[in-house]
Amino acid sequence: MRGFRFGEPPRALQPFLLPAGVGLVTTALYTVFSALQWRSVAAPSWDLGIFTQLARQYAAFEAPIVTIKGDGFNLLGDHFHPLLVALGPVFAVFPHAFTLLVVQNALFGLAAAALTSGAIRLLGPLTGTLFGLAFAFSWGLQGAVEAQFHEIAFAVPLLALSLTAFLLRKWLACLLWAIPLVFVKEDLGLTVAALGLVLAVRSRRPLGIWLAVWGVGWFVLASLVILPVLNPNGAWAYSSSIDLLGIVNDPAALFQPQKGLTLALLLVATGVIAVRSPLALVLLPTLAWRFLSDNSGYWGPTWQYSAVLMPIAFCAGLDGIALLRTSRRHWLRGYGRQAASVSIVSALVLATTLPLFKLTDIPANFSTDRAAAANAALQVVPDGARVESDIGLMNYLVERTDVYWLGNHNPLPDYLVIDLQAGGLPGEWSSAQIVGTALHPGATFTTIYSAGGYEVARTR
Predict the structure, then answer these.
(1) How does pLDDT run across 158-212, given as a tens digit for each residue?
(2) Are the C-beta atoms of residues 292 and 361 closer than 8 Å to each other?
(3) Which of the ends of the chain has fewer CB neighbours closer than 10 A, N or C?
């Protein structure tokens, strides 16, 4: 056939090949990291255990009662994330906690493919692909992968798809991809509202106003009605952490170094040019609740809190580049031609400080010295048992037992599982016997396994 070369992909598929490649590389590399982390029995937090219990409940067509958070605790009373019901069918087929890590990595890969597609249209194949890789392995996404699964996994691709549609002036697609964000986490309603306002101004159509109303409406409904009704304490659990009075009394608190570092990294990652785009305003709701909180864990660039900022910042960078190309100032047009390269170089410079760099020395960073002891401890706990645990082996128990976190007031367990080295226990709790006596006075615990810092005790 004329125009056809053997081995060359059909022309209709060619625009998708580079974005798909970036997406697959992103998913694969992050999954390698997750697998090594899992094999080394690393447990950064209890989040993976919490969301595994949620997925297990949804797979059984039951309400998301998560005993790690508390006896009978409905997780929809903690954060508003009904979109996580999508985990149910996946978990039903692959009923493992590790499944959630693969899902998150695949969602990040989807986001990388979407953003790369938009970048290629603006910057060309080579620069656009490198820009997409800079996003794919940005500090916010790497921090989320290292922290393991969190609900924001679903927000990242939705934002990337919506904002890429915005860049391509596909206003309806922008709105449709943004609509489900309100079902990922309650505060994202305000992010949707900010996007709606920017969409209204840029498109000069009422679609953006409707999107803004949708976002505000669901934020109000979730935070003032749904969460208080489902929360055991009858209130939105995180409203008290917003310390507006403290900021008024001490404005200098807004300039805390960790907050400054987060902002600096956002600017560096996008070559500063993101501030030229009105899409930068979509960053403000997330930055506001984090920086106004009295919880210092929200301020810095670590954990999963910055993942939702990455698609916004990088799409704002692309929009800023497009806007500078039409600037009247010669020097701005010149910088617009170089800004993407600044983002790419910044990603390379930051790479040595980020989690994926640990893959350069796997034995040192993903030690399996305790794996045999951990597996032996897990084997003495039967399926279906009621287990009280710290975070050490929690993520490895949730898929087959009923797990309670020992920091709550819980019913008497069948088994107590502790990690004396990395479980987060107070220093005075130096054995399973001491922990059991402290948590359940009058109950008798018998230690049936002790090795490698892990202990398993059974109630009589």
Answers:
(1) 999 999 999 999 999 999 999 999 999 999 999 999 999 999 999 998 999 999 9
(2) no
(3) N
